[in-house]
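W.,

You were right to be curious about this one. When I first looked at the sequence I had no strong expectations either way, so I just let the prediction run and decided to look at it fresh. Below is the sequence, 96 residues in total, followed by the output.
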Amino acid sequence: MSTQYEIFRDPFRMLILLATLVSEKQNEPALQFDKVPFFENDTFLIQHDKFVYKKNLTEITWFQFLGRDIVCSKDLSREEYNKMFVDCLASLYNIT
């Protein structure tokens, strides 16, 4: 079993924001925490129970609905989380 790390509150909020924006971009109704939409590009993947940042293979998982038993595969600082999610948001909207 791999080591899992607790996720800070701020990165958790950024993950919710990212999932919400993915829902909006796909013309889905409001984000449902038990049905996170699937989205994948060259930067990240998000689906029902997992988020993967492809540039450094950081994986965040949760159980049944976003926020429950949420853990990260790496022990990242708040700054590292912020950079990761800013990169993901930029990739979602093709901002360079």
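Here's what jumped out at me. The chain is about 35% helix and 20% strand. And, maybe more interesting for your project: The CA atoms of residues 3 and 26 lie 33 Å apart.

Coffee later to discuss?

I.
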